[in-house]
Write a structure and sequence with these properties.
OB fold (Dihydrolipoamide Acetyltransferase, E2P); three-stranded antiparallel β-sheet; 7 helices; 11 strands; 39% helix; globular; transmembrane; Single_hybrid_motif; Glycine cleavage H-protein; GCV_H
């Protein structure tokens, strides 16, 4: 009797594992189909298609290094011991944009004000323009990004820095920036806003992630799959501040 019970239990576990594998295989097949459909839609709108599978990530996956100051236009400022400041785009921006085809760097010696246009990301014929988090004069730029713009996606806060600046009004500029806990709370608000104005209105492209309406995961590189109208909306709502 005991032997029969053990065998029955083993068979049940095997059947459960088999059912899970079948369900997972079907889910992956749907994800690939969604990616293909999204790429087709993007092509029809004149956007270079991205043939990578649709993936998602959670809010906790966003990187917010300690000691780094964040501008509301999604650039960051890291104050060096030399007194100079390194600047780049934050993790939220690079994840939202997706593919980078080209980065336009600022010229060395250019004087810039906090909130002034400073560098841009190109994806096909579209451009995302970023603004400086501090006042000052550009002292150097990351030339590696000209040939390998994808470096920003691997780590936007170290190797993916865009330029360094000699600050001229840092004490006042910092008052308008976010750091540590304040940065985390602000980013959470931005993520919620992103879901509301971009993801929720485009879930017909991503039914696999319809749970986003209930606080679910975010589609990685969403702007790759959307049209120019949504791209312009992202620039207006998240970068032009």
């Amino acid at each position: 009797m005991v032997a029969i019970l053990v065998v029955t239990t083993i068979i049940c576990f095997v059947l459960i594992d088999l059912a899970f594998l079948i369900v997972e295989a079907k889910r992956q097949k749907r994800v690939l189909a969604i990616a293909s459909e999204a790429s087709t839609i993007a092509d029809s709108e004149g956007v270079k298609a991205s043939h990578k599978p649709v993936s998602s990530f959670r809010e906790s996956d966003y990187r917010i290094p300690m000691g780094v100051f964040f501008h509301k236009g999604h650039t960051w400022a890291n104050i060096l011991t030399s007194g100079y400041v390194k600047v780049g785009m934050d993790d939220f921006a690079q994840r939202s944009i997706g593919r980078f085809d080209e980065i336009e760097l600022p010229p060395i010696g250019k004087e810039v004000r906090q909130g002034g246009k400073i560098f841009a990301i190109k994806q096909g014929t579209r451009k995302a323009t970023f603004h400086s988090p501090v006042d000052g004069v550009i002292s150097s730029v990351n030339h590696t990004l000209l040939e390998r713009p994808e470096v920003v996606k691997k780590d936007p806060y170290i190797d993916g820095w865009v330029y360094a600046i000699k600050p001229s009004n840092l004490g006042e500029n910092i008052k308008a920036l976010k750091v540590a806990k304040d940065a985390a709370l602000w980013l959470k608000e931005e993520i919620t806003k992103f879901k509301e104005i971009l993801m929720r209105r485009n879930l017909n492209l991503f039914p696999e992630y319809a749970t986003v309406q209930d606080g679910g995961d975010i589609v990685d590189g969403l702007l790759e799959f959307l049209g120019d109208e949504q791209w312009d909306l992202f620039n207006k709502e998240f970068l032009k501040k």
